[in-house]
Design brief:
Helix content is 62%, strand content 9%. With 328 residues, it is mostly helical. It has two domains: 202 residues, Cation efflux protein transmembrane domain (Alpha-lytic protease prodomain-like), CATH 1.20.1510.10; 86 residues, 2-Layer Sandwich (Alpha-Beta Plaits). A hairpin with a 2-residue loop joins strand 1 and strand 2. Helix 2 runs antiparallel to helix 5. The longest helix is centred in the N-terminal third of the chain and has 30 residues.
């Protein structure tokens, strides 16, 4: 089974589970008339919409490149996470408002035992499916699956807190525990929705993923060859699970075109082999100048003008700059 097929099946599983659980939670609210249970049920409605959109985005992300999308369709996954985050944020704001009214005007909670039983069962299902989605999302580098799985984690947590509120109400008779739990959950949901929005905006704006950049640079440094005099202007963009990498590599100016091509091909292949996803890499070759002699590791260079002073160790602070390295 291809990674795309795995993603689509898990997306469909998430949608089916979300539909089933939202029915159970609204039934639990019908029995209990609990503000906390209503909060949990409303948050689960968001699950249905977001799971449906995530499934659609996973389908699009799996489509091959075409004339209109030369870098593929992977960025739709960021839009999916943004859509999910926006809905969660709106739901959190509404829940805060509703819970505040519940604190001011509390009402009795009925049949808390049934509410606890139903919500606890939905929490177990959400945790199991969420764990599967997050684990697979990390393995396949799918932002949409990760976002969907984390949302199911949040949903499970709201069910656990709601169940705890019902237990407290049943044990103490203080009905404000119900609205207090709903208020707490509303704030938690609001914060998580904001974080998901932030993550989606970062991806759509091509914000640098420092961890990936560091991994690319570390691999270049570890596999470094003498003709690779200097690397700079290194950039990494993520398109869904796939990566687009480009950089400038300074090489001896007297190399033939064939020698340069061989070196560039080797660089591209070793980076592709480092990552488990599709990598599109472009390396621009720059000819060396005599100013680079003091940093050049080429043995017995026929045109060297200055002795080697020291090797520049490539890292995330110098390799991403749009300038060649020089002596400090």
């Amino acid at each position: 089974m291809t990674p795309s097929q795995i993603k689509n099946r898990l997306g469909l599983l998430s949608l089916v589970v979300s539909l089933g659980l939202v029915i159970i939670k609204f039934y639990a609210y019908h029995l209990t008339r609990s503000q906390a249970v209503l909060t949990d049920a409303l948050e689960s409605i968001i699950n249905v919409f977001t799971s449906g959109f995530a499934l659609y985005s996973l389908h699009l992300a799996g489509l091959p490149k075409d004339e209109n999308h030369p870098y593929g369709h992977g960025k739709i996954e960021y839009l999916s996470v943004g859509f999910e985050g926006a809905l969660i944020f709106i739901a959190g704001a509404f829940i805060l408002y509703s819970a505040s009214l519940g604190l001011l005007h509390p009402h009795p909670v009925a049949r808390p035992d049934w509410g606890v039983l139903l919500l606890a069962s939905t929490a177990v299902v959400n945790l199991a499916v969420g764990l599967l989605l997050v684990k697979t999302g990390k393995r396949l580098k799918s932002i949409a699956l990760l976002g969907d799985g984390q949302h199911l984690y949040i949903d499970a947590l709201t069910s656990i807190v709601s169940s705890g509120a019902l237990v407290l109400v049943a044990a103490t008779g203080i009905v404000r525990f119900d609205s207090g739990a709903a208020l707490l959950l509303g704030g938690f949901i609001l914060v998580n929705g904001g974080r998901m929005l932030r993550r989606a905006i970062s991806g759509l704006m091509d914000e640098t993923d420092t961890a990936i950049v560091a991994e690319v640079i570390a691999e270049l440094q570890a596999q470094r060859r003498a003709p690779w005099i200097d690397v700079h202007n290194l950039r990494v963009q993520r398109y869904g699970a796939n990566l687009h990498i480009d950089c400038h590599m300074q090489m001896p100016y007297y190399f033939t075109l064939d020698e340069v091509h061989t070196q560039l091909h080797d660089i591209e292949e070793l980076i592709r082999a480092r990552f488990a996803v599709e990598v599109e890499m472009f390396v621009h070759a720059d000819p060396c100048t005599f100013a680079a002699c003091s940093l050049c590791l080429m043995p017995a260079c026929p045109v060297r003008q200055h002795p080697l002073h020291h090797e520049v160790r490539w890292n995330v602070h110098n390799a991403v700059k749009n300038e060649r390295h020089h002596l400090a």
